[in-house]
Amino acid sequence: MTQQTRGHGGHSHSHHHHHDNNDAGVRITRIGLYSNLGMAIAKGVGGYVFNSQSMIADAWHSLTDLASDILTLATVSWSLKPPTERFPMGFGKVESLGSLGVSSMLLFGGLFMCMSSCQSLYAHFFLDPAAAAELLEHAHLHGHSHSHAFEGPSLHAAWLAAGTVAIKEWLYHATMKVARERKSSVLASNAVHHRVDSLTGIVTLAAILGANFLQDATWLDPVGGLLISLLVIRAGWGNTLSALFELADKSIDDEVKKSVRKQVVKGLMGVTESQEIELRDVSGIKSGQNYLIDLELAVPNMWTVEDCRGVEDAVRTQVGAKVRGVRRVRVRFVPKELAATEKPFDEFIPGDSDLTVLSDAKVDFDADFGSKYGITKGVLTNPAEGEVFAPVAMWLEALDLVLDRLQAKNTPLSRIRGISGSCQQHGSVYWSHEAEALLSTLRPERSLVDQLNPGAFSHPYAPNWQDHSTQAECDLFESRIGSPEKLAEVTGSSAHHRFTGTQIMRLRRKLPDMYAATSRISLVSSFLASLFLGSVAPMDISDACGMNLWDIPSNSWSAPLLDLVAGGGGGDDVAIELKRKLGDVRQDGGGSMGSISTYFQSRYGFSKECQIAPFTGDNPATILALPLRPGDAIVSLGTSTTFLMITPIYKPDPSYHYFNHPTTPGQYMFMLCYKNGGLAREKVRDVLPKADGGGGGGDAWETFNKCVMNTPPLDVEDPGRDKAKLGLYFYLPEIVPNIKAGTWRYACNASDGSGLEEVEEGWAVEKDARLIVESQALSMRLRSQKLVEKHDSDLPAQPRRVYLVGGGSLNPAIARVMGDVLGGVDGVYKLDVGGNACALGGAYKAVWALERGAGETFDELIGKRWKEEGAIQKVDDGYRQGMFEQYGTSVCCNAVQSHSTQNTVVYAVIQLPLGFIYERAFLRKKHQSPFVQRASLFEDFVIRCVRYAFANIKPNIGRVFLSKEVALRFLSWRMFRHGYLHPPIYWHEYHDAEDSFRGIWLVKNPMYKPDLVIYYAHGGGFSMGSSYFYLEFLMSWMSLLMSSGYLNPAIFALEYTLVPDASFPTQVHETIKGYAHVISVIGDSAGVVVSGDSAGATLMLILLLRIADGSAEANKGLKNRHCRLGNPGMAVLISPWTTLTSWRHKNTSSDYLNVKELHRYGLQFAGNNISKNDPLVSPGNCKDLDWWSRASPSRGFFVAYGKEEVLAPEIENLVQVLQKAGVVVESKGEPGGIHAWPVASLFLSSTHDERLKGLRAITENISQRVGSLGLR
C-alpha cells in the first residue's frame, strides 16, 4: 500500500480566539508591568535613601522585570495571531523568541548584579576605607555620599523589602496559573521572574535586618546582593535553555503525548472497524502556546483514501477539542502489514550524509546455503572442463536473507533514500523472455526465489571469476583483433578466462538453445540492481570494461568482437541481436535509474522515495571507499592481491587492466590482479622453522615477520660482494604474468642488475619470507611505472600514497617492504573501512549519485565529508632514499628486457600469423579493418609487423635499421633489382662550415641553380629515421618533378639530430639553418617548397611559425638573419604530427602508430626546455589565426594524410584552423589510408601506379601552384 499523509493547518479551536485585550495572559502581564514599574521606583529611591546595597540591586532587578514584561506583552499578543499563507504554522515561535529575550535579560542582569556585589565584598574585607571608596567610585557604585560607603542600611528599608515580597509572590502565582493553562513558555519565564523577585526580596529583608541588629554586619548587605544574583543567574540560565530547546523543535513532553494518545483512542471508538486501527506513534513540537501534533496510524492494506479520511477527521476533532493548546494535527497512514520501525523518521529528508555506517548485515554463502546448494566457497566446480559457477537462485535467497537480518537489527530501512552496490566482476546472469514481466509483478508475501526461479532465467548458473574454461575463446578474441596488445588497446585488457565476453561465447557454443532463449544478459552488478529496480537494469560503464567487449576509446560495444561472440558468418543480425541482449551501457555512474520496486517497499518497509543508482563491480567500488587521488595506490592484500590506481591517461597493456572510472568521465582505473597473494605468503610461512624450534607452537606470522626484518633488501648486505636475489613464487597458475604454477629463483649483480641467472640450488628458506613480499611488490612497481609521476622534483616517480587493505595490511613487516619497494611520498597507510571496502564504496556511490550538485564530482562530494581520523593509520614512512633506487637498479631493468624479448617471440611465432590468417581468410570484408580491405597481402603483413615494432621495440633498435649504413645497402639492392648500378639522380652529402647542420642534396644538374627546391625533413618520431632511408622516395619525387616541366629541380633533405642525442630546440635550430642554406642556393624563398612527413612535417610547421614570430624569445639562440627569412612558396605536409600529445589521438585497427608510444616520443622531443603545449614545439596548439596567416607560404598548404591514421583528427583540426585564418589550404584524406602512406607505399605496393599514386598527387599540386624560376 502506498503511504498516505494528510495534513491540517486550518482547524482552529475556540480557546485560541480571544481578543488580545481580554486574554488572561495579556491581562496578567499588564498587571505585572505596572507593579514592576512602581516597585522599581520605590526600591531605587528607598535603596538610595536608606543606604541599602541589596535594595539597589533589587531595584535594578525590577527594571529588568519591567523590560521583560514589555517583551512578554508584545510576544504573547503577536503569538495569538492566526496562521497566514506566508506563515502557515502560525506565530507561536514568536513567543519562543520572546521567552529567549526575557530569560537572556534575566541571565545578564544577574551576572551584572553578581559582579557588583563581589566588588563590594572585596572592598569591605580587603581594602582600607579610602581605597574602598575609590574602587566603588570607579565602579559607579557611589550613588550617594562616599562618607558612608560602608555604613549599614537603614532599618526603614525593611518595610519596603517586605512589601515587595508580598506583591511579587502574588504575581508569581497569578502568572503561573495562566502560563499553565496556556502552556506558554514566555509567561512561565515571566512568572519565574516574579518568584525570583519574591526570593530576592526575602534575602534583601534578611540582609537589612542582619546589618542593623548584628555587630559589624554591614557586609551582609552585599552578601545578600550576591545570593540574589545567583538565584537570578540560575533562573535565567534554565529559562534560556528551555527557550532554545523550543526554538530547536524539541519533541513534546511525555505528559502531552499521554494526553494526545488517550484522546486518539477515544476518537477511534466512534469509527467503524476501529479494532483494525493501530496507533503507532505520537510526536510533535511546541510552538509558543501551540502544539503541532503528528500521528502515525496503521490501517489494513486494502483501505481506501476515503476510509482513511473518515478516521482522520474523527481523530483530529477529538484531539483538537480535548487537548488544550493543540493547534494542528497531521495524520500519516501506513500499511498495518508493514512492521513498525524503531524511529519513524522516514518522512524527514536528511541533509548531507556524514558517511557514518549505521548498520550492516552479512550472508555467508557456505554457512547459510552450503548444504542446500552443495557449494564450496560460494561456488560449484566442474574440474574436468575448468568451470566455476554459482547458482543464481542462491543469490536470490541471499538478498532476502540479508534484508531480513537488517530488519531484525531494527535498521530503519524506511529512511534509506538511495541504494547502490558492488558485486563480483565478470560473472553473467541470463534472463528469460518472461523476466521483465516477473520482475514487475513481484508479490511481497512470497520470496524472490519462489517467484523468479527458474522462470526468470534461461540459465540457472552464473560463471564465476575463477572460471578458466575459455582458453580457446581467449585465443580467438586476440586473433580477431590482431594481438593481445591490440585487444588491450580496444578493451583495456587482453583476453582473460574470467572476462564476460569469452564466457558468453563459450556458453553460446555449448548451450545454443539456452542462448536463443535468453532475452537479456546482465553482469552480477546489473543483475542485483535489476532486482531492486523491478526491471532489467543497464550495465555500469566501469563494470562493462571487464567483459573484453567494450571499446573504451570509442565508448561503444566493439562491433568485431560482438560479431565474434555472436557466431559471425550469420550476417549482421547475430551481432545486432547480441547487442540487444547486452543492452545500452549507462554512461553516468550517478543519478537515479528509478524508484525501488514495490516488492521491497511492502515486504521490508523501504520508502517509495528510495532511488536505485547504478551498481558497479567490486574492484571499481574499492577505489570509491575513500576519495582516492590520481597518483595514490590501493594494494589489497587478501587471498589474492590487487593493485589499483586512478589515472587520467589511457595506457593499456596486456599485463594489466584498464577500466573506465565508475564515477568520473575522463578518468580510468588501473588494475593488477594476482592469484598468488596471501595464499603464496602462507605457503612460504608454513615451511619456516617454528618459533619455539620444535614442531609446533609459537606464532607462525611472528616467525615470518622476523625473517622479513632480519633479511636485508634483496638479501644484499655488501653490494660489491653479494648478488641480489629475486624469487618468483607461483603456487597457482598466475594471471600476471600469464604463467604456469612453479617457483623460480634468480640472482644478478646488485650494482646494475646485469648477469641475471637462475639459481638451481636455491637458498635458505628464511630468505624467502622477504623475497616473496619483495617480488609481489616489484611486480606492481614494474607494471605501474608508466602511471606514477614525480610529486617532488628531487624525488623519483612513485605513488603519492600507498593504501593497504585486507588481512595483510595488519602485518607491519609486509607494510615495511611495500614502502621500501613501492615508495610513497606521503607514506604507507592502512585503510580501516571495516571488513568490506567494496561494499562501503558502493554505499558512498549511492550518496554521491543522489546528493551531488551540478557538476560535483565524486571526489569533491565525498572528499568534503570523509574524515581521515579513524579511517586510515600511517604504518610506514614509504619512500626511503637509496632503498627505493636500489630496487630499480637491480631488478626493473632485467624484468623489462626479459618481458620484451619474450613478447616479441610470442608475437612473431603465434599471434602475427594467427591474426593475419584469421582476418584475411575468415572475416567477411566489411568486418575487416579499412586498411586491410584495400591492402595487398604483403602490405598487410608488413604493416602488422611495423605496428608491433612501433609499440614494443625500443627506438634505438629502429635507428639501426634506418641508419645510413643499412639504408644505403638496402637502396643498392633495390636499384640492382630494377637494373640500376648507379643512382639515376645525382646526390651528395652536405655539411656546413660550422658543422651545425647536415643534409643531402639531390639535383638534376649541379652546374646550374635549381628552379625549384623541395626542402624536406624525414619522419620517425624524432627518435629514428634518416634522409638516407628516404633516398629512393626522394629520387622518385625528383623524377616526377622533371616530368612536370621543371628544368632543374632539387631536393635538400635535412639530416637533423635524433632524440635522445639532443632534444628541443636543437632540431628546430638545424631546420632554420637548413632553410637559410636552401634560400642561399636558390636565391628566392618563393621557389622553395617546405615539406616533411610525420615528425619532419612538425619541424616544418615550427619553422613557419618561427619565421612569422619576430619575438626575441621565439628566436632565442638563433642568428638575427633567420628572423628576416622570407616565407616559402608552398608547404607540403604528409601526415603531419601537428600536436605532440592530444586527447584526439586514438588508436585505430588500421594504423601502425600507437598513441602511448607516440606521446612518449613527443614528450622526449619537448624535453624540459619548453611546455609540451607551446605552439613553438607543438604547432597544433596554435589557435592564433593572425599568426597562422603571417606564417602561411605565399601559395598555401597541401596536406596529405590517411583517414584511418591516429593523427587524422588533429590534422583535420589544423586544416580547419588554417581555413579560418584565410590561408589557402587543400587537404587530401585517403579513405582506408594509414600514416605516411605516400612514403610507405613506395616500398610496399605491388604496382608502379600504386607506388607513385601519393607522390603524383603531391607533384601535380606543386606544379599548379609554384612555377619554375628558370635556369640561372
- What is the overall pLDDT average? 82
Spatial order of the strands in the main sheet? 28-29-31-30-32-33-34-35
| Cα end-to-end separation | 100 Å
Regions with little confidence, pLDDT below 50 for 5+ residues: 1-20, 138-150, 893-902, 905-909, 1111-1123
Q: What is the number of helices?
A: 42
Overall SS class? alpha/beta
What shape does the CA trace take? elongated
Helix content: 40-55%
- What composes the largest sheet? 8 strands, mixed
Got a strand count? 35
- The Rg value, from CA coordinates, equals 44 Å
Percent of residues in β-strands: 5-15%
How would you describe this structure in keywords?
1272 residues, 13% strand, 42 helices, alpha/beta, eight-stranded mixed β-sheet
What secondary-structure arrangement, pairings included, does this model have?
Blueprint: E1 4-6, H1 24-49, H2 53-79, H3 92-126, H4 129-138, H5 157-182, H6 185-213, H7 220-247, H8 254-268, E2 278-287, E3 290-299, H9 305-322, E4 326-335, H10 365-373, E5 380-382, E6 387-391, H11 392-408, E7 418-419, E8 422-423, E9 428-431, H12 435-440, H13 448-452, E10 461-463, H14 471-481, H15 484-491, H16 500-510, H17 512-516, E11 520-523, H18 524-533, E12 539-540, E13 550-551, E14 556-557, H19 559-566, H20 572-582, E15 585-586, H21 598-604, E16 611-612, E17 616-617, H22 618-622, E18 633-637, E19 641-647, E20 657-660, E21 668-674, H23 678-686, H24 700-710, E22 723-730, E23 742-749, E24 757-758, H25 765-784, E25 802-805, H26 812-822, E26 828-831, H27 837-851, H28 858-865, E27 872-876, H29 883-922, H30 930-934, H31 937-952, H32 955-961, H33 964-977, E28 986-991, E29 998-1003, E30 1012-1017, H34 1031-1043, E31 1049-1054, H35 1066-1082, E32 1088-1093, H36 1095-1108, H37 1120-1123, E33 1130-1134, H38 1155-1166, H39 1185-1191, E34 1197-1202, H40 1208-1220, E35 1225-1230, H41 1237-1244, H42 1248-1265
Parallel strand pairs: 3-4, 7-16, 8-17, 12-15, 18-25, 25-26, 30-31, 30-32, 32-33, 33-34, 34-35
Antiparallel strand pairs: 1-4, 2-3, 5-6, 6-10, 9-11, 13-14, 18-19, 19-21, 20-21, 22-23, 23-24, 26-27, 28-29, 29-31
